[in-house]
């Protein structure tokens, strides 16, 4: 954020106490006594607003000359923000569609994994049944890992 201090000539010779450098806090009028008038505060406020409008113009279109028409500046800013908002909404919609597709794919993969596990268990049971019929003990991974230690 652009922060600057604005010096305003209030014809009191006390322009050093207008605002602390880098501070955006508004100081109480009582701290400056009667020499600091309401008109000085208003001029300071107008200058700050004008600086912010110039900053907004430079952000919107760096190559454009600053306009004095604040309505046009605000209209451009609103149009740009609406355009960005529309793009972001479209991005969100496409990401949500991708999430939906990925969830469906994940569900399909889980179902396929479950079917493969069931099929593997059936095949293992068939191997065990066939080997017991032939009198051959099947090679069990649980047995080989127990003796491997």
TrEMBL record:
This is Transcription factor ILR3-like. It comes from Prunus mume (Japanese apricot). The gene is LOC103329462. SUPFAM superfamilies: HLH, helix-loop-helix DNA-binding domain. The lineage of its organism: Eukaryota, Viridiplantae, Streptophyta, Embryophyta, Tracheophyta. Gene3D superfamilies: Helix-loop-helix DNA-binding domain. Keywords: Coiled coil, Nucleus, Transcription, Transcription regulation. Its main location: nucleus. Transmembrane segments: none annotated. InterPro entries: HLH_DNA-bd_sf, ILR3-like. Residues 85-133 form a coiled coil. It is found in: Nucleus.
């Amino acid at each position: 954020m652009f922060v600057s201090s604005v010096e305003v000539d209030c014809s009191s010779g006390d322009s050093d106490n207008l605002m602390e450098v880098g501070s955006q806090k508004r100081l109480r009028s009582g701290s400056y006594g009667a020499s600091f008038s309401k008109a000085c505060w208003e001029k300071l406020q107008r200058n700050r607003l004008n600086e912010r409008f110039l900053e907004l113009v430079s952000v919107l279109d760096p190559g454009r000359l600053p306009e004095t028409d604040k309505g046009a500046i605000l209209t451009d800013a609103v149009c740009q923000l609406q355009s960005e908002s529309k793009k972001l909404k479209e991005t969100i919609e496409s990401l949500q569609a991708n999430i939906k597709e990925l969830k469906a794919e994940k569900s399909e993969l889980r179902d396929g994994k479950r079917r493969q596990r069931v099929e593997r268990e059936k095949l293992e049971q068939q191997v065990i049944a066939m080997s017991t019929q032939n009198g051959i003990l099947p090679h069990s991974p649980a047995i080989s890992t127990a003796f491997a230690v």
